[in-house]
Sequence to fold (186 residues):
Amino acid sequence: MFDLSRSIEASRHSPVRVVFAALAGSALIAVSAKAHVPFWPAPMTLQVLAIMGLAVAFGPSIGLGMVAAYLVEGTLGLPVFSGTPERGIGVAYMLGPTGGYLLGMPIAAWAVGRLAEGRSAFGQFAAMLVGLALIYVPGLLWLARFIPWSGILAAGFTPFILGDIVKIALVAALAETARRFAAERR
Fold:
């Protein structure tokens, strides 16, 4: 029988498993960045859902490694980011309007992984709210290089925050369901 918690603990000690986990997680983040879901007022990707879910499931170190691998892949020019290759690739894309959000992602993954450890669904949701702030703050500050301050919230926050809150609520609910399922199986 597969035991996720035992596998995660073992992966903390095996370099091969850590590398595999980082690459698998980065692939999931890349796929989630390409998935565009119709939503109002703007379409959304599933990137935040993947990053928060991985951080909650695997903890701060492995979650950070997954996001770092994703960013390295993007830096090397692989079309892993939302809107790539159409909106550019590599460092040029990362220095564009969404670069600050990308900068906040590894910080958020580590913080969420640390803050969510051993918490209830509500505690994990709160940890992910902190993670959202750690993505949005550098994202909005970076975006200010490209648009006037008066339009920052309308361009980089308001269209996305509702979808992101829905995504983290979904992660918290799924994590709680998985925890209950695992407890029943013991």
User: Anything to note?
Assistant: The mean pLDDT is 91. The CA atoms of residues 144 and 152 lie 6 Å apart. DSSP finds eight helices and two strands in the chain. Helices lie at 4-11, 15-34, 47-75, 90-94, 99-116, 121-143, 152-156, 158-185.
